[in-house]
């Protein structure tokens, strides 16, 4: 299976039922071009958030057709009053006042999350301009995690073209320094995503050590414990750790470093020990290798939320909006 096969699955599932997806920064060039394609191909109905005049001016400038999209200005929308009341009810136990709820809805991320939370829309795509934290804060406060998940983590589907394989890597955006329990959940989340695409998950918890070669530093012990916890959660998947990257991906290296391990250079899910390692590695992969990031997903969240990213290429932004529709249909199924 290659990335074209992955995208075929995404597009086929997106078309199963017409979903409504909110694009938070509706005036952004990449978002507008993605909207044009998604609407033209019939993958989803779209809501573009932002000033209507600005959105239409930008659409004209970039020569895109968004006439079939719904445009909502959060600051002028008739939906504000009801959404503010709903947000207040949702967060009043945390100390949020009605006045504060109204002010928060000026933010396209809060407004978009409330559209999804109340069922007006089925998914949200954002963070094309704003930092990831500005999208994830309301997403976690409002949409929240699934009942069986203890946290939300980002899973990136990578096309390793050099070695002709698909890899699922996590967590590259959200969890800064997870403990063993959290790291295990990140591994389970990523494995579930791989399984949903038809892969038998073989998960490697990455480290600078392979099966004890680096001693018993706390970061190594964390990966070992996470491996055990994750295996107990998903007995039908394969988890191994701690593992260096070469032993995880190269059978010859694995044969030298960890003969008899459950993962012998054939991992298809890679779990980084913390955000420092994962974020640096991901940006290096994008800039220095032939590998291509196909799609990213938020695993463990109750309804689809897509992190578009401020430096994400146009084709990936488009695919992420389509993926939101796919995820909505998958959740129902």
Tell me what you see in this structure:
The protein has 333 residues and is an alpha/beta fold. The protein has two domains: 3-144 and 302-332, Rossmann fold, CATH 3.40.50.10950; 153-288, Isocitrate/Isopropylmalate dehydrogenase-like (Rossmann fold). 46% of the residues lie in helices and 17% in strands. The chain has helices at residues 3-14, 29-41, 52-61, 80-91, 98-104, 108-117, 132-143, 180-196, 218-233, 245-249, 251-257, 275-288, 314-332; strands at residues 20-23, 45-49, 70-72, 123-126, 153-160, 165-170, 202-206, 238-243, 269-271, 292-299, 305-307. The chain has a six-stranded mixed beta sheet with strand order 8-7-9-6-5-10, sandwiched between helices. Helix 2 (29-41) links the parallel strand 1 and strand 2. The radius of gyration is 21 Å and the shape is globular.
Tally of helical segments: 13
The portion of residues assigned to helices is 40-55%
Structural class by SSE content: alpha/beta
> Can you tell me the CATH topology of the largest domain?
Rossmann fold
Strand order across the largest sheet: 8-7-9-6-5-10
Biggest sheet statistics: 6 strands, mixed
């Amino acid at each position: 299976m290659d990335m074209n096969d992955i995208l075929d699955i995404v597009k086929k599932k997106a078309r199963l039922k017409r979903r409504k997806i909110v694009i938070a920064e509706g005036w952004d060039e990449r978002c507008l071009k993605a909207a044009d394609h998604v609407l033209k191909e019939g993958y989803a109905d779209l809501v573009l958030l932002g000033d209507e005049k600005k959105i239409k001016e930008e659409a004209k400038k970039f020569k895109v057709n968004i006439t079939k999209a719904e445009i909502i200005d959060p600051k002028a929308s008739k939906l504000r009053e009801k959404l503010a009341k709903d947000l207040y009810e949702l967060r009043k136990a945390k100390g949020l006042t009605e006045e504060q709820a109204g002010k928060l809805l000026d933010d396209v991320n809060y407004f978009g999350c409330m559209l999804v939370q109340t069922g007006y829309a089925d998914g949200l795509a954002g963070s094309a301009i704003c930092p990831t934290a500005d999208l994830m804060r309301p997403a976690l406060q409002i949409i929240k995690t699934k009942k069986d998940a203890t946290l939300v983590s980002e899973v990136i589907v990578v096309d390793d073209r050099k070695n002709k394989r698909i890899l699922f890597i996590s967590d590259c955006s959200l969890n800064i320094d997870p403990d063993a329990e959290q790291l295990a959940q990140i591994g389970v989340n990523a494995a579930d995503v791989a399984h949903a695409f038809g892969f038998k998950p073989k998960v490697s918890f990455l480290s600078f050590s392979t099966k004890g070669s680096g001693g018993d530093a706390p970061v190594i012990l964390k990966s070992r414990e996470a491996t055990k916890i994750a295996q107990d959660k998903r007995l039908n998947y394969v988890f191994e750790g701690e593992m260096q990257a070469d032993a995880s991906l190269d059978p010859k290296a694995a044969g030298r470093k960890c003969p008899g391990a459950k993962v012998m250079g054939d991992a298809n899910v890679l779990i980084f020990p913390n955000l420092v390692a994962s974020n640096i590695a991901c940006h290096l992969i994008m800039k220095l290798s032939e590998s291509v990031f196909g799609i990213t997903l938020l695993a463990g969240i109750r309804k689809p939320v897509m992190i578009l990213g401020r430096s994400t290429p146009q084709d990936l932004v488009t695919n992420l909006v389509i993926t939101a529709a796919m995820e909505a249909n998958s959740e129902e199924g």
